[in-house]
Amino acid sequence: xxxxxxxxxxxxxxxxxxxxxxxxxxxxxxxxxxxxxxxxxxxxxxxxxxxxxxxxxxxxxxxxxxxxxxxxxxxxxxxxxxxxxxxxxxxxxxxxxxxxxxxxxxxxxxxxxxxxxxxxxxxxxxxxxxxxxxxxxxxxxxxxxxxxxxxxxxxxxxxxxxxxxxxxxxxxxxxxxxxxxxxxxxxxxxxxxxxxxxxxxxxxxxxxxxxxxxxxxxxxxxxxxxxxx
Length: 229
Fold this sequence. Notes:
- The strands form seven sheets. A four-stranded antiparallel sheet has the order 4-5-6-7.
- With 229 residues, the protein is mainly beta.
- It has one helix spanning 2-16; strands at 22-26, 29-36, 40-45, 55-58, 62-64, 69-71, 74-75, 85-86, 91-93, 98-100, 103-104, 114-115, 120-122, 127-129, 132-133, 143-144, 149-151, 156-158, 161-162, 172-173, 178-180, 185-187, 190-191, 201-202, 210-212, 217-219, 222-223.
- Helices cover 7% and strands 35% of the residues.
- β17 (149-151) and β18 (156-158) form a beta hairpin.
- The chain contains one helix and 27 strands.
- The N and C termini lie far apart (71 Å).
- The protein has two domains: 1-75, no CATH class; 134-223, no CATH class.
């Protein structure tokens, strides 16, 4: 059988290493083998998969047969198996669509779509986090900064959410949840209206979210006693 030849190399490591995931054959049918702490290793049937034409496209994620593309054990509705190709363990494209895992990325252009990290991508129109467009100001210049910050030539983002009125040219990261530009201080994606951008900084020798300016100290976005001084 085709599946036996294609999956032999893949099935053996799954059998020998209890916590791996992937495809294998059981009783002549393709299955997805998964694992979690509660159940241990277990097999999930792949409904409708044709054993004679089934092939693994990417070991840890994608497979196809003559009529369907699969992400683990789930079909990619509308995906074309003849033109489908994986870009990563999360993204794939065919001639007309982009997919994140088993979901279509609505509006994404498969011709210009490129990965940005493991769970984001961009095309000529927008930037996408998982399967959602973020409304980027400039997809062509979009870049990842230190996690979880991003920037393009026009806007700044926290966890892919745009900061209001932030200036990317002067933006600086202060903590994982604080940033500032030449005029404003941000906590996550919201402005801290009373904070002074020129003097805003982390409190030395203090908690990760403890910050201060020349007027006061803050914990997250709330005034708080100064620490570590």
